[in-house]
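Box S1 | Example of a co-folding query
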Amino acid sequence: MPFTLTTPLYYVNDRAHLGSTYTTLACDAIARFQRLQGQEVRFITGCDEHGLKIQRTAEAAGITPQAHCDAVSAGFRELWQRWQISHDRFIRTTDPRHRAVVEAFFARVEANGDVVEGRQQGWYCVACEEFKDHPAGSEAPDCPIHLRPLEWRDEVNLFFRLSRYQEAITALVARPGFIAPASRRREVENFVAGGLKDFSISRRDLPWGIPVPGHPGHTFYVWFDALVGYLSALFDADDPIDLEVLAQRGWPARLHVIGKDILRFHAVFWPAMLLSAGLPLPEAVFGHGFLTREGQKMGKSLGNVLDPELLLARCGRDAVRWYLLRDIPFGDDGDFQQQRFSDLVNNDLANTIGNLLNRTSSMARKWFEAAVPPAGAAAATSHPQAVAAARTDQATVEALTALDFRGASEAILALAQEANGYLNDRAPWKRIKQPDQALEVAADLYAVLEAARLVAVLLTPLLPEMAARMLRQLGQAPLPSDATAPGQAAPTATAWMQARRWGGLRSGDPLPEPEPVMQRLELDSPL
Ligand code: MSP
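Box S1 (continued) | Returned holo structure for 5'-O-[(L-methionyl)-sulphamoyl]adenosine
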């Protein structure tokens, strides 16, 4: 059964920002880790293209909504390619097949008696595409997220009978592990305990949406349509649009990764919709935190938006991935600080890890004929470096399984630090001058090279490119963790299991000429 993992489907009102890039990078690390563990992965991302917000954006630009969506979603696709995101599926909600899936889904919900007409009154945030809890009759308040005035709505449209699912959803959100991190569960539990109200799933007078079958004049509310996109993405190209097929295509999802602002949609509305349609529920919903920049909320009006294109061009993929995954506890809010960013990249990647590999392989090349030295005492799994590596291996795999990227990064970094300390204690550059110590020097270098190899292996899901450069530097093949092409076999767990064993380097194998595996970041001007 495939491991299905999703990012949110991003709105195309604007280009990707640091927030969407953050979610996507984190999912990429998860997908790569799962592939290395031998899982067949369906890593889904895509674009959410309907609704009033998109319609207005296109109108303002003076183009048709479709032309606007085509251009912006192509931008997302290209951006993820440049970030080397390993998604398996990219779904656009304007895809005609998606429309057919939404129709099939709605037919089940309606047949289940969960669609009724109702009157919706309330304050609406177009940027959130969501009604907010504010009393009627008051002044137009601002949306707490977008800081823009809410709009008053009073319309008759179709409602989904969410209230029927009170009991089921109460039990679901209390289930350990369904909402992660656990600290976010309380907020959803309170919302559910407040009593679930039916919510409107259609709009009148909104041309830019999927028409509701059998209800002329109605189009689907953008969230109803978008959530179903997770299902549409799983259909293979020649599959009939039959929701029963999904059981063989990777539904239910193992994990929806989202930002905390859209947790309610994923942990309450979506499961109720699925129950109504008779489909199984996702196993977990992970709500990560929000990123600020130098302590400030990012926004166009503040002019402090960090453009992922620029970040990529100036800093490169490894640096950004490392900073975001290593520094921000996944699930918590985080603050992007330029100085800390370059300090961490330079200290951890260029110095601690990069220099370790570089200086050790330079010594080995110089004194042992440009090859991996004889392992001697370092062949034993009781060697202090082997013991440290085994500890790191366990800690890293446990942390990655728990989506604790920071814990994994710290464990890997600690191994590199330990190897550096070992090298300094053993001072091979002094001992090599005494001919009777050559074998001991060889064993020390072997142990440290092997530790560096394991650092690279374990870094693969987090920093696939740097890991590949390190492995090549050690004369080893990189570990494949990318998406598989259709029809191609998924990677097996064996390569990863084998690579994680102590003793993978073979004495006598050539060591290529060292090149820096990580460039230092010299950010002399603000990003
Ligand atoms: N289209 C909906 C999702 C539909 S899923 C079926 C949507 N799109 S979005 O483009 O507005 O947001 C995508 C994600 O970006 C959300 O998970 C949101 O939490 C996240 N972020 C937006 N700003 C962010 C930060 N400043 N920091 C981190 N993530 C943030 O919502």
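The CA atoms of residues 124 and 131 lie 4 Å apart. The chain has a mean pLDDT of 95.
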